[in-house]
Design a protein that fits this description.
The protein is of the alpha+beta class and 590 residues long. It folds into five domains: 5-90, DNA Primase, Chain A (Alpha-Beta Complex); 104-232, DNA primase, catalytic core, N-terminal domain (DNA primase DNAg catalytic core, N-terminal domain, Alpha-Beta Complex); 248-361, Dna Topoisomerase Vi A Subunit, Chain: A, domain 2 (3-Layer(aba) Sandwich); 370-432, no CATH class; 444-588. It has a five-stranded antiparallel β-sheet with strand order 1-2-3-4-5. Helix 17 packs across helix 18 (419-432). It is globular. Mean pLDDT is 85; it is low at 434-451. The structure holds zinc ion (ZN).
Length: 590
C-alpha cells in the first residue's frame, strides 16, 4: 500500500458517502438508507442504495458496492491513489505519496501538470482577448454575437493569436517541459523542421472545464467562414470527449433545482441560453452523445431535453442520440427548433419565455420518430408500410410492456392499420433483436459461494454484529473455511477492531479486490440475520457446524487413506475424486 493506512482511515472518518454520492446521483431517503438511480447500470427505478451509518453503497440491480473511496474510483474512473488524493484535498487531510511506484507517480504528476498548464494557457488567451490590440476583431465578433462581458469573464473566453508560435513562445517563457507541452495537444511538432507550432490560431477560445472546475481542454472557433469552423483539444490524459459536457460545471446546480437539462450542440447555443437565464443547459460540442454522458447527466436531472436545428443534420443527430437515451431509460424530450433557427438565434430573437414555451411542447421520443417517418414517407399505403417498418425497432426497444402497447395502439390509430398487424411486426422485431452489450452482472461469485452458505453467513454475522468477532477468533473457525476466498475475507474481518465506527467501511478499505468489497457491501446491505434472534448463539452454532464438517471430512479422508493403503481399489478411486474436487474448489476460490 502506497498511502499509510491511518491516512485512509482518517479520510474515511472525515468524508461522508451520502455527500460524495449526492454529487453525482439524486438520492432520496427511505428508512435508514438513501436510494437513487444507479450510475453503473441502466435502470428506471432506483435500486442503488447508500447506507449513511455504515458509510457504504450497494446496488441491488448490478451488485456494485463499496465505500466512499471505491465509489469515487468507479464513478470517475480514477486509480486508488488518485481517489485518495482527491478526497484528501476535499476534506483537508494531508497525505504524503512519496512511496508511490514511479510509473504511477509520473502519470499523476503529468495529469496535475496538464491541469496547471491548461489553467495558465486559459489565462494567457483570456489576457489577449481582453487587452491585446490584435484581438479587436475577436472582441467585435463576440459583441456581434451578443456575448456580454460578464459571460466572457465567467466562462474565461479568450483569443488565440493569428500566428504559429503564440503558445509555443508562451511555453518557452514559462519554462513548460517538452512532455507536458506535447501531451497538452496545444502545440504540434513541425513536419519539415524541428520545433513546434500552435494548434489554435486566430480563433476565439473556449476553455472546457471538467466537473471539478479544472480546465480539461479547449475549443476554438474561427471568426469567418473558414473550415473547420470549430476545433477542440484532442484526447489527452485529462480530456476525454466521451465524458465531458461543456458548461456542466456551471449548470449543474440549476439542473438539480429544475430536474431538467437542455442539451444543445455548440458553444454559442450554450452561452446564449445561459446568459438569457436558461442556465440548466449543457453543450455536447458536436460529438456524438455517449451512455457515459447520459449517466453523468442522470446525476443532475431526470428529464433531458435534446434541442436540435430543423435541418437534415439536426434531425439525423437527434435520431442517433435517441437510442442511447432510450437505453438509459431517462425521460427524453426532443425539441426541433423552427426552420432557420438554432438555440442561440432563437433565444436572442424571441426571448427566454418563448424558448421555454417550445420546451414545454417538446415531443416525446416516439412522437418525434413518428413525425420524422411520416414526413419522410407520406401517408400513402406504401408510405404507411414504410413508416411501420421504421417504427418497429423503436417500439421493440421499449422495455416497459404496458408503455409499448400504448404506443402500438397510438401508431395503429395514426396509420389507420389494424392494431394486431402492428403487434405482429413488433414481435418479429423482438425475436430478431440480438441481446445488447448491456451490463451483465457478474454471477460467478454467487455460484461459487452457493457451495458454502455457512461461511458466507458467518461473515455476514460479523459485519452486522462485530461483537462476535472475539468468539470467531478464539474458535479458530476461519482456518476451517472451505473457500479460500471467504477464508481470506473472514481473516481480515476477524483481525479488525470491532469497536471502530462505521466498521464495514473500514473493512472495505483493507480489501484489495473490488469484487471482495462488492461482496462485503452486498452482505452488509442485504437484510441481516434479524434483530431479535440471538446473534451470538447463531454465530456459535454456525462456528461449531463448520468445524464439525471439517473434522468429519478429515476423518473420512483418513479412513479412506488407511483402507486404500490396505489395497481397496474402490477407495483409491473415491479418494482421488475427493482430492480432485478439493483442488477445483481451491482454484475456483482464488
Ligand atoms: Zn447498479
Amino acid at each position: 500500500m502506497f498511502i499509510p493506512e491511518e491516512k485512509i482511515s482518517e479520510i474515511l472518518n472525515t468524508s461522508d458517502i451520502v455527500d460524495i454520492v449526492s454529487e453525482s446521483v439524486i438520492l432520496k431517503k427511505s428508512g435508514q438508507n438513501f436510494f437513487g438511480l444507479c450510475p453503473f447500470h441502466s435502470e428506471k427505478t432506483p435500486s442503488f442504495s447508500v447506507n449513511p451509518a455504515k458509510q457504504i453503497f450497494y446496488c441491488f440491480g448490478c451488485s456494485a458496492g463499496g465505500n466512499a473511496i471505491s465509489y469515487v474510483m468507479k464513478y470517475h474512473g480514477l486509480s486508488f491513489v488518485e481517489t485518495v488524493k482527491m478526497l484528501a484535498r476535499k476534506y483537508n487531510v494531508v497525505v504524503e505519496t512519496r512511496q508511490l511506484d514511479p510509473s504511477k507517480r509520473r502519470e499523476l504528476a503529468l495529469k496535475e501538470s496538464l491541469f496547471t498548464l491548461n489553467k495558465q494557457v486559459m489565462a494567457y488567451y483570456y489576457r489577449l482577448l481582453k487587452q491585446n490590440t490584435k484581438a479587436a476583431g475577436a472582441r467585435d465578433y463576440l459583441e456581434k454575437r451578443g456575448i456580454t462581458k460578464e459571460t466572457v469573464d465567467q466562462f474565461h473566453l479568450g483569443y488565440a493569436m493569428d500566428q504559429w508560435d503564440g503558445v509555443v513562445t508562451f511555453f518557452k517563457k514559462e519554462k513548460i517541459g517538452r512532455q507536458a507541452a506535447v501531451k497538452s495537444g496545444l502545440v504540434l511538432p513541425r513536419k519539415q523542421s524541428s520545433g513546434f507550432y500552435d494548434r489554435f490560431r486566430n480563433r476565439v477560445m473556449f476553455p472546457i472545464f471538467d466537473i471539478n472546475m479544472q480546465v480539461a481542454g479547449f475549443g476554438g472557433r474561427v471568426m469567418d467562414d473558414q473550415m473547420p469552423k470549430y476545433m477542440n483539444s484532442p484526447e489527452t490524459p485529462v480530456y476525454s470527449k466521451s465524458r465531458i459536457l461543456y458548461g456542466l460545471h456551471a449548470a449543474k446546480q440549476y439542473c438539480r433545482k429544475t430536474g431538467t437539462v437542455h442539451i444543445v450542440e455548440g458553444y454559442f447555443d450554450f452561452l446564449s441560453l445561459f446568459q438569457n437565464g436558461i442556465k440548466n443547459t449543457v453543450a455536447s460540442l458536436g460529438t456524438a452523445l455517449t451512455s457515459e454522458h447520459v449517466r453523468i447527466l442522470k446525476g443532475y436531472a431526470s428529464t433531458m431535453v435534446l434541442v436540435f436545428d430543423s435541418d437534415a443534420a439536426g434531425i439525423n443527430a437527434a435520431k442517433r442520440s435517441i437510442k442511447i437515451f432510450m437505453k438509459e431509460g431517462v425521460d427524453t424530450r426532443i425539441l426541433v427548433l423552427p426552420e432557420g433557427d438554432d438555440p442561440d438565434t432563437y433565444v436572442v430573437n424571441h426571448g427566454p419565455e418563448a424558448f421555454l414555451d417550445l420546451v414545454s411542447r417538446a415531443k416525446s421520443v416516439m412522437q418525434f420518430l413518428l413525425k420524422v417517418a411520416m414526413d419522410t414517407h407520406g401517408l400513402s399505403v406504401e408510405g404507411r408500410i414504410r413508416i411501420l417498418d421504421d417504427m418497429r425497432p423503436h417500439l421493440a426497444d421499449i422495455q416497459d410492456s404496458a408503455l409499448r402497447s400504448l404506443h402500438i395502439r397510438e401508431l395503429a390509430e395514426t396509420l389507420n392499420i389494424d392494431e394486431r398487424a402492428v403487434l405482429e411486426k413488433v414481435k418479429e422485431q423482438v425475436v430478431q433483436a440480438q441481446p445488447g452489450p448491456g451490463f451483465v452482472p457478474d454471477n460467478t461469485d454467487d455460484q461459487l459461494l452457493a457451495s458454502d452458505p455457512r461461511e458466507k453467513q458467518l461473515i455476514s454475522l460479523m459485519l452486522h454484529c462485530p461483537d462476535i468477532i472475539p468468539e470467531v477468533q478464539n474458535s479458530g473457525v476461519v482456518e476451517c473455511f472451505y473457500s479460500q476466498r471467504l477464508c481470506g475475507i473472514a481473516k481480515i474481518i476477524a483481525g479488525a477492531d470491532p469497536h471502530q465506527k462505521a466498521f464495514v467501511n473500514h473493512i472495505m478499505a483493507k480489501m484489495e479486490q473490488d469484487k471482495d468489497r462488492q461482496l462485503i457491501a452486498s452482505l452488509a446491505m442485504t437484510e441481516g440475520p434479524g434483530e431479535e434472534t440471538d446473534l451470538r448463539n447463531t454465530a456459535i452454532s454456525i462456528i461449531n457446524r463448520i468445524i464439525r464438517i471439517k473434522k468429519r471430512k478429515e476423518n473420512t479422508l483418513t479412513t479412506k487413506i488407511i483402507r486404500a493403503e490396505k489395497g481397496c481399489e474402490a477407495d483409491v478411486m473415491e479418494l482421488l475424486k475427493l482430492k480432485q474436487q478439493e483442488i477445483r474448489q481451491l482454484h475456483g476460490g482464488q
